[in-house]
Amino acid sequence: MRDFAQAFRTAWLAMLVFVATSGCERAPQSAPASGDVASLRGTWVSDRQRSMDFNRANAKLKPETIEFLDQLLGRQTLAFDDRTMRAVMPAFQVSVKGKQYAMAAMDEPQPYEVLHAGAHVVVVRSESRFIGTQVTTFNFIDANTFWIYTGGPAGSETPDLHTREYFTRIRVERSPQRP
Fold first, then answer.
1. What is Dmax (Cα atoms) for the chain?
2. Which long-range contacts (CB under 8 A, 24 or more apart) does 153-159 make?
3. d(C-alpha 122, C-alpha 114), whole Å
4. In angstroms, rounded to a whole number, what is the distance separating the alpha carbons of residues 166 and 35?
5. 12-34 pLDDT per residue, tens
6. pTM to 2 decimals?
7. Boundaries of every domain in the chain
C-alpha cells in the first residue's frame, strides 16, 4: 500500500512538473497582430476532456494510468499575476483498480520569470517548494487555450508519460509589464 501511495505522489508531482518543449500541435486558430505576444495573465482551468482526448490518441499509457489521469485532469487551476503563478488543486478521491485513494489539496504560489514570450509560446522559469526550479513552455493554440507537456527526464521521480494537459482561460487580467 505504501508503494502505491508513493506512486500516486510521484504521479501527482508529474502533473506539477512542466518540462520545456517547443512548437505547437497545429497552427493557432487566430493569428495575433504583428508584435503581439501570448499572455499568461489571468486564471486558467485544466481542460480534462481535451487533455484526455489527446493523451488517449497519442500517449502509450497503461489502463490504470489512463484511469488515474481521467480522474486527475480537469481539477487544477493556474493563476498568473506579474510575479507569481499560483497552482491550486482541491482535495479529492480517486479510484484505481477498484481501490479508493485520497489526494491531498494543493495551493502553491510560485515566483516566476518569463524567459521568452512569442506569439504562440511563453517559456517561464519558476520555483516550486516541491520540485525546485522548473522551466515550463506554454504552447498557445489561441489566446485563451494552451497546453503543457507533462513528465520528467529519464530516471527522474516523475515518469515521462508523453502527455499534455490543456488549459482554458476563465478570467483575463491585463498588465503592460509582462506577458
1. 55
2. 153/19, 156/17, 157/10, 157/13, 158/10, 158/13, 158/14, 158/17, 158/131, 159/10, 159/11, 159/14
3. 7
4. 25
5. 444 433 322 323 333 344 444 44
6. 0.77
7. 2-171
